[in-house]
Amino acid sequence: MRARQGGGGPWARFRKDRRAMAGLCFLALEVLLVVLLPPLLGLEPNVTDRAAGFWAAPSRAHWLGTDDVGRDLFARLICGGRISLLVGFAAAGISVALGVPLGLLAGYRRGGWEYGIMRCADVFQSFPTTVLVLCLVALVGSSVWNIILVIGVLGWTSIARLVYANTLSVAEQEYILAVKALGGSTATILRRNVLPNVISPVWAALAQRVGRAILSESSLSFLGMGIRTPQASWGNIVQYATNVTVFADRPWVWVPPSLCIVATVFALLFVGDGLRDAMDPKYIPAAGPEEDRAVYRDTPEEIRHIIRGR
């Protein structure tokens, strides 16, 4: 029988997940680069270098070459990362800020609250997300903050359903009934007793929402409905690939932003999985790569031994 692993607090458990730590380090490095490199290197994403010309190949002066009007593509990649990450994190924050309280109310108050909030979520989810985002952005405009607002507001449904499902089970626990019997107010019960027990899955969902928001912004910009030039984002740099000549002969233009999008989304998924396992008291880390990622603590001891020894 192998010794049980996974002691310590949430941070100690998180650090034992190598993929989660790798994702966190990658995201931290990425944020530092997009924040610090422009002022340190004097990167100007909208300055045209007439001497270098249009569609110049990578060189010492321009590490990723220049675009169709002579702007430095490396500067636009770094500064575009600021916009893409801002859209991702801000939109996910709006989704969580809306979804968590609505999910709590629907799962705890039930009745009219449950019916109204869940039917509203059904209406939002009945439309194709991409089409709905395109329509709303066309209606309100394609500025950065409008895109953040649209993506954030449309993303609350998945968070609300997750919190709602967990609240339904927690609300029937004996300690919740005891607090009710002692005269605890609804706000106090939700804040101090229910929320701490349903919030752990939201961490994984939050990281996924950031990734989805980045993908949504990139898709909008690629289609010409998102961030528009001269403002840079990863999505509107990848849009250059719609030109067959650029796609075939100048991969240094569109490959770097594409790799940034893919790597960022994967890093967010790894961090989300690590946060879920570290924050949820029902999970303990697996003892080896061949085992399940987590084993429930409330599984009977003899069954847990069988799972760990298979």
What is the strand tally?
Answer: 2
Proportion of helical residues: 55-70%
**Quaternary status:** single chain
Name the overall outline: elongated
Uncertain stretches of 5 or more adjacent residues = 1-6, 284-310
Q: So, CATH architecture?
A: Orthogonal Bundle
The CATH class is identified as Mainly Alpha
Radius of gyration: 23 Å
Name the CATH superfamily classification.
MetI-like
According to CATH, the fold-level topology is: MetI-like fold
Q: How would the blueprint of this fold be written?
A:
Elements (H helix, E strand, L loop, with lengths): L9 H6 L2 H24 L31 H37 L1 H16 L2 H12 L3 H11 L1 H15 L3 H8 L4 H13 L1 H23 L11 H5 L5 H6 L1 H29 L3 E3 L8 E3 L4 H9 L1
Antiparallel strand pairs: 1-2
Helix pairs in contact: 2-3, 2-13, 3-4, 3-6, 3-7, 3-10, 4-7, 5-6, 7-9, 7-10, 8-9, 10-13
Overview of the molecule:
This protein is an all-alpha fold. The protein is 69% helix and 2% strand. The chain has helices at residues 10-15, 18-41, 73-109, 111-126, 129-140, 144-154, 156-170, 174-181, 186-198, 200-222, 234-238, 244-249, 251-279, 301-309, and strands at 283-285, 294-296. A two-stranded antiparallel sheet has the order 1-2. Mean pLDDT is 84; it is low at 1-6 and 284-310. The protein contains 14 helices and two strands. It is elongated, with a radius of gyration of 23 Å. It has a single domain, classed as MetI-like fold.
